[in-house]
Amino acid sequence: MTIPNSLAKEFRSFLGQDGVFTEKADLLAYAYDSAVLEESVPAAVLAPSDRESLGKAVALCYRAGLPITVRGSGTNLSGATLPEPGDSAVILTGRLNRILEINPRDLYAVVEPGVVTARFAEAAAAQGLFYPPDPGSQEVSTLGGNVALNAGGLRGLKYGVTKDYLMGLEFFDHEGELVKTGSRTVKCVTGYNLAGLMLASEGTLGVFSTLILKLLPPPRASKAMLAVYPRFTQAAEAVSEIIAARILPCTLEFMDMMCIRAVEGFFRIGLPVEAGAILLAEVDGGSREGVEEDARAVASICRRCGASEVREARDQAEKAKIWEARRNALPSLARLRPTTVLEDATVPRSRLPEMVEAIAALAARHRLEVGVFGHAGDGNLHPTILCDRRDAEEFARVEAMVDGIFEAALGLQGTLSGEHGIGVAKAKWMEKETNRATVEFSKRLRRALDPKLLFNPGKMFV
Fold first, then answer.
1. Is 10 helix (H, G, I), strand (E, B) or coil?
2. Are residues 183 and 54 part of one domain?
3. Closest among 334, 233, 246 to 279, alpha carbons compared
4. Contact call for residues 306 and 279 (beta carbons, < 8 A)
5. Domain that holds residue 462
6. Nearest-5° angle of CA 361, CA 362, CA 367?
7. Is 77 part of any domain?
8. Are residues 178 and 248 both part of a single domain?
9. Domain presence at residue 145
10. I want to staple 39 with a disulfide (CB 3.0 to 4.6 A). Which of 31, 134, 189, 196 is the partner?
């Protein structure tokens, strides 16, 4: 679990003394990510601070036969940034954190991969522009990681996910050569769509150095509301009805009773703790009149589907409180037990009530506490199992339930992951969702671009 001194010295020649870490005390910080998986300690951690040193680090790692895992903030929930144990290297993007350009005339930005998502959105907003992708981890997650896993977020229903904002990028191949793809223009069909190939590739095909991202004008008006339901299934049915009515809220989220009580117990926001579920909705648009009309229609559907109460936010402060509740669902649940296992089951929106019922049945069968929240508007649920990994018998039930969640999602024509990625945690399920030919094709593609299979080995297609 060490690299030769001569190799460490060569890395330091262009990364500097503070850009190379080889002591175990330093390495342990990068032996985990947000997934509930065993530690995996690398031999070295490298921290380039510019594009040139990044390319040199990639080339030298590859020549030396060191497996490479690129890491932003490690907020993924699939083990995608766990390094290969032993003689491997983690390349950090945290120092590659410059916003190189924000262009208000042509509505794009050029950034380095280590820029934090929320800081970028704030910089765009300061110039009167809007970057919609808003993963729950946006206060710490990086744009490079968002692209590597095609991150989503609360606004995915109306505005889409990271793939809808990636216009182009530059990345280093296994020889340390800089590859450019895409453009600053709205239209670009020059060559293969390599940006699309690199999107959601989880660091298995190359290392990003620069991203070109699309920006939008912000909506002129918005309105948020909270609907209270006696039963979780009623909230799920309301989601299907809202979409069927051809209304497209910018955000449509829900939380079950366990999530409501966990958030209220920690943050004292004023949530209805006796509710079976709450549905959180926001509509936006170009005119106040249109937004008001959509808001009335959403509220009417919510009541028709059994809502005992619909609260509309009266001002920005109340709206912020509504979204504070949703964004704090996971940290609030995490306080209740030593281990939280957060999953990412996604189904067609019309099948949402069935998926909610399946999760409840699985929780009862395996005798587990499960809080459910998620992006209801795009069918993306986050069942969160509360447990203690040190209890082997309990954790075996957790693993059986996770398998059951995936079986149920695929049985409802859903997918393994709506936004968290495949990583280590879901690799074994890839063939189940696709087929053998797809897996083999992907492996051949990967080997063509990474002949030694050193780019993030063990992830996705193994």
1. helix
2. no
3. 233
4. no
5. 436-462
6. 100
7. yes
8. no
9. yes
10. 31
- If one counts every other C-beta atom within 10 angstroms of the C-beta of residue 166, the result is 22
C-alpha to C-alpha distance for 239 and 302, rounded to whole angstroms: 8
This prediction's pTM: 0.94
Strand order across the 99-103 sheet: 99-103, 108-111, 207-214, 166-172, 178-182
- Measured in whole angstroms, how far is the alpha carbon of residue 279 from the centre of its chain? 21
pLDDT tens-digit readout, 215-248:
999 999 999 999 999 998 899 999 999 999 999 9
Angle CA 96–98–99, to nearest 5: 140
CA distance linking residue 445 with residue 439, whole number of Å: 10
Strands (E), 124-244: 166-172, 178-182, 207-214, 221-229
Question: What ranges in 102-215 are assigned the alpha helix state H?
Answer: 117-126, 143-149, 156-159, 194-198
pLDDT digit string, tens, across residues 330-380: 999 999 999 999 998 899 988 988 999 999 999 999 999 999 999 988 899
Cross-strand bridge partners of residue 224: 282
Number of domains in the chain: 4
Taking the CB of residue 147, how many other CB atoms lie within 10 A of it?
Answer: 26
For residue 298, the one-letter residue type is: V
212, 115 contact by CB (below 8 A): no
